[in-house]
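hey
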């Protein structure tokens, strides 16, 4: 669910009256036109990036998905224009330009990942996918019409991309193009979660456990299907203190305060941001590894009715006994 503070934050409810779900990935549209539109405006601006221009001609002049993405995640055009006007961020955007344009031309790699998902979870549903350029605040989300929207500026770095002048969290979570399929599948898992909740008339209370499981399961399922986890920076930091983190998480998991665990890049201090992703992943992993039928286990991960019940079934709480 990224980045007002994280690279993927999915808390937008789907309105079933305006969205559509397809039963196979070949039926969806992969929208890339907003990438070309962004660079056209970038060039035309000639170094003067005004809020009015980018709001009118980009966020409201592009695809419907881009407009919904702006409403849900960016909200203030200055979040983009201030970065384009900052020399370090301007240099970053310029350096990833070729890779963003390549991403728009090479969508087959994303189609292949969607097909892998279909093979692993035949009950899946699919929604349109839009690749856009955002404000380095949200790497991916599902917008209100059900479409997946990916901020490709997060996933088009190269080893030569200059990052030293960027916010430390941005330095840590931006990735190379090989990670782009991972954020797509992560968001696709969120589509499954919401579709199941809609069909089963399930509601959520927004507890730390619920949100951490939603995010961690999305990371874990992505990892087992395409062998990529875009939050792979977390395990080296968290694995040595997993039991300590679990005890802290356990004490807070039934509350609604996410601030120490999720979407907290701007206020995590010395603590790594988004450790809720890690905890959700580890719970999902523990459950999956204990199941003999991995196909059924994957289905159960996608179709959780109660976060509390799933935690019990995972037996994760006894991992350290």
């Amino acid at each position: 669910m990224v980045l007002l503070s994280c690279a993927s934050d999915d808390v937008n409810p789907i309105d079933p009256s305006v969205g559509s779900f397809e039963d196979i990935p070949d039926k969806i549209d992969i929208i890339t036109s907003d990438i070309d539109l962004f660079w056209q405006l970038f060039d035309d601006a000639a170094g003067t990036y005004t809020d009015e221009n980018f709001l009118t001609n980009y966020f409201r002049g592009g695809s419907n998905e881009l407009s919904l993405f702006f409403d849900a995640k960016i909200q203030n055009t200055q979040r983009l224009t201030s970065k384009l006007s900052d020399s370090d961020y301007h240099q970053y955007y310029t350096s990833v330009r070729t890779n963003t344009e390549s991403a728009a031309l090479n969508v087959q790699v994303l189609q292949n990942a969607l097909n892998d998902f279909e093979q692993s979870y035949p009950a899946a549903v699919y929604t349109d996918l839009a690749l856009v350029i955002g404000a380095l605040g949200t790497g991916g989300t599902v917008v209100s019409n059900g479409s997946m929207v990916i901020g490709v500026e997060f996933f088009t770095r190269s080893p030569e991309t200059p990052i030293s002048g960027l916010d430390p969290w941005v330095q840590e979570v931006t990735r190379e193009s090989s990670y782009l399929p991972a954020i797509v599948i992560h968001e696709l898992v969120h589509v499954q979660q919401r579709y199941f909740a809609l069909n089963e008339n399930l509601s959520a209370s927004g507890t730390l456990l619920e949100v951490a499981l939603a995010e961690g399961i999305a990371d874990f399922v992505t990892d087992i299907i395409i062998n990529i986890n875009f939050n792979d920076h977390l395990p080296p930091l968290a694995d040595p203190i997993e039991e300590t983190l679990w005890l802290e998480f356990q004490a807070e998991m039934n509350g609604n305060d996410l601030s120490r665990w999720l979407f907290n890049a701007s206020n995590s201090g010395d603590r790594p941001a988004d450790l809720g992703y890690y905890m959700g992943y580890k719970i999902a992993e523990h459950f999956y590894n204990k199941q003999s039928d991995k196909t059924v286990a994957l289905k159960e991960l996608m179709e959780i009715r109660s976060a509390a019940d799933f935690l019990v079934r995972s037996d994760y709480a006894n991992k350290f006994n």
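Residues 83 and 89 are 5 Å apart (CA to CA). The mean pLDDT is 93.
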